[in-house]
Structures
1.
Amino acid sequence: MNKMQEILLDKVTVNIGVGQPGDDLESAKGLLSRLANGNTPVETHARRRQPVFKLRQGMAIGTKVTLRGDSAKTFLDKALAAKRKVLKSSNFDKQGNVSFGIHEYIDFPGIKYDPSIPMFGFDVCISLTRPGKRVSIRKLRSARIGKRHRITKDEAIEFVKNIFDVKIE
């Protein structure tokens, strides 16, 4: 296979949406830090005002952490074990990214129930890339990449099946 055509794991983003600032948000930050082996989570903010949900623009409503490299692979192995190594084909998008959710943090291997933390679930988003993708996102002399270089849904499914031994339904 061409070296520039191989698919790589770019990053894994883990997200907990709480919906309001306060103690629950701080608990979610602590939980994400435990899940991500000490990586520091950042707050996510509301993009627009939603009076129905009592949200104002800029209000902290969630937290996320981004993992790359070996820590991303080890986290992903545990997260897929929590899903029993089964994903749906609807978890893949047209650009080859994968997203799935874990309903409760106690399903994650190695994490025990803590009565001080409310029962949170979290989302795991996997971004795949190929060498040369940076050409399209750099600031100076950015250029488009060709269709053959983009990752399709079928290629992402094959990558996840082969690398992480996942069954696709």
2.
Amino acid sequence: MPSDRFRPPITLARALSKLGAASRSQARLIIEAGRVAVAGRVVRDPDLWIDPSRTAITLDGKAVRRAPFVYFLLHKPPGFVTTRSDERGRRTVYDLLPAGAPRVFPVGRLDLETSGLLILTNDTQFGERATHPSSHVEKAYRVEVDREPRAEEISALEAPMVLADGTRLLPGKVTCDRRRPTQFELCIFEGKNRQIRRACAHIGLHVVRLHRLRVGKLSLGALPEGACRELGPAEAARALA
């Protein structure tokens, strides 16, 4: 569940990221530029181990304090990338957040053409719990492929899989739709890069459409495509319970 506690010690760069002051990569540059002080002393080592709950950190002379936790539930449309900026000028999911939204990160990613439920938050412990396989948080997708899968192909998706590049995937859970033979629901408990598309390609299926339905107990409900709503901390906590 959401928590404001650190697990010290952590590096200074990670502390700045967890406090919402900058991304991890930006934090390293800020620290190396001499803009950060720890206990009143300028530090240029991003990998300095500290306990942020006991140590004062300042950025450009101002105290760095954790921003209140926020959680956004977004209905991502196809054609948006799950990054803060894009070198190719494509639209990003951050274009869909309310004006003035605090710095948040996506809890797992959806690729360019995948639609559906995406959570964005500044609560790193929530994000880690939602995405780590050991938490066993279910992610449910509606998958449409180019032909009706055979029984052995469904079985392959429900078994451990090793892709051609050596990537190991945990078993999934498939629910078929007899009314729509080229569609099925696939539940997974991890979130590796383009996992479902790669798993389907490995057994000879081409994904035509991919839509995330649920994460844990959270679903989109009637939220329109392209819209988002803010979750309260209690609702976010219940989603992963």
3.
Amino acid sequence: MSEAIVVAGARSNAGKTSLASWIVGNLPGRVAAIKTSISEGHEDIQVTADPAVTHKTGKDTQQLAAAGATPAVLLRASPADLEEALGEALSESAGADYLVVEGNRVLPHLHPELAIFLDAPGEEKPSAAEARDFCHLTVNGEQLRRLVEGEDNLAFSVAGASMSCRRAHLVARAFGAASRAVGDKFTAEGVKLRECQLGCF
């Protein structure tokens, strides 16, 4: 079973695909990615990993594929069809070591090992408030810039007062950071690591 990471966000065009692609590029092994588009306007389910669709220049899936996602999957569905569509997309992604999913509405259905909320000024999507509550980390616009430009791979804030050791290791892999550096950041932010093996951090 793939370890799943979801990138959610406050609004459209906040940079979710840039963050998701950066994470794809950091993770070892085979990484699959799913780009979701959930709207009442989508009357039919569309789930595809066909490169003729997903690798088109300018598409978010093309950016995910360029970062190394194999496959990059496009999921379009209405909210009512999301669970069925997600099942199809997960089948397309089977066998990957990691799965990176971009989208807010998948969180109640997927229960990922790590969820990251990309904050941005402006009017929030209706799905943003619920998504924020599911997330373990927050990244704002300036932090995103520092991440993707290679200035600081610890540019994130932790939501909550504790985190499991397993999730902390996944944070380190997703952000391309040393476990010790992540542990030091959690300590500085007052985050307690739990279920931790001796010496991991």
4.
Amino acid sequence: MDVISAVTPPQGFENLDSFRAERAERAYKSFEGMFLQELLKEMRKAQPESELFPKSDAMKKYEEMLDGVLAQSMADSGQLGIAKELQAEARKREAAEMLAVDRTMQKQALETLKGAPNSADNLSGLGLGE
């Protein structure tokens, strides 16, 4: 992937913000799917293995693939809500960061105004005061 395609939204997206939102949503759902897959994997480990019918390597691989598909299907349904919660937390964090940036900019502007001479000094310096 080149640098231009990494920041340029593909066709179908009006602006970069909607493109980033779509990518973030897919990332959160993918994370939820990986989490669910690990959960299913650990649940399978808790299941006692039959001595009469031991699992072959092929059966273990099949169950692993089945868990992956099932986990992604569960994540895509959105019923568990992990992806939605992650998105909500990310929005809160972004809002807090934007507020902090705004406050910093306001403080810098106030400090600049405090250091600037007042309007009466400006007028007298121009010969218009008094």
